[in-house]
């Protein structure tokens, strides 16, 4: 039978009286309009709809709305990576002559943007200690545009004085930007503490499976969000529909994963603190944490899934530990369903001198753990095996 000639593009999905319970993936780069007049309506806001995927697509919007709800914000922008979200803030809202203050223990790439890229574009930057509001105050200048902090620092888990800094920023008329990747809205909602802009690397705990790279940024002031959205579209920070779909799927179990990983992290911290050869355990809800009182006030018992500890015996012991802790990925990421171990002296903080590292408390025996969803007993047994091997050095 001769095939009826058809146009290249099919006319849409088969009709169904029932509806899909799962968000469809919409990979279309373009969206067809009826007439030039209907396109005018869309561009001029009389009707709504998609035009071209770099400008926006349904999977990004569905994901964005879910994160908006978690953070308590409207109309946040989903970007192709966490660093794209950082860029949308630092590059999309500043101009030559402005000044930006950053926390001195920001995520490595954010620090690099502060120290390398912004100055190249004529935007001056300073770093300050976000655990000490006086240090941030001393860094402010008349032309300061924003202060960028993370609530819990990597990898030493120091707690920023977000309330004090928010008050300072309000008085000075400066935007407070909080990267909430590490803490997540399960532990703290920065908008409730006076943040003007919140950033996420969705890549980490929100998506949670180490299989997507995405970011999100939202502002309290819709005008700021709109400026970042336009900048993100112009500079091509577009997220992939497939990745947005995967992240939406991951996000459905975010709270469950967070609760489980946090409970295990707390237990693992207590376990490690009692072991021979362990010189220090850092976890925000431990009473011996250097910012214990602030952690208690801000995080309300939510210590999160990140834990750091130090063993004696230097690099040789660290090698023996990482080698013997079989089954735990020695990999510099966080927020995965599987526990990951990182060694800042040889990875995130390798560019610092040993003195620079020791000034912030990072030695050759220092490890950071992103606790995953393993059975806690199995995980503790693996850490014990690592400690035993390290102790034989
Ligand atoms: C990973 C991370 C980023 C960057 O996110 P990507 O998705 O890897 O680009 C930014 N800030 C923090 C705190 C992070 O941990």
From TrEMBL:
Record GO biological process: transsulfuration
An example Gene Ontology CC term for this record: cytoplasm
Cofactor list: pyridoxal 5'-phosphate
Pfam name, any one: Cys_Met_Meta_PP
Residues with the N6-(pyridoxal phosphate)lysine modification: 204
Record's keyword terms, sorted: Pyridoxal phosphate
GO molecular function, one term: pyridoxal phosphate binding
Family: Belongs to the trans-sulfuration enzymes family.
Official protein name in the record: Cystathionine gamma-synthase
Organism from which the protein derives: Allosediminivita pacifica
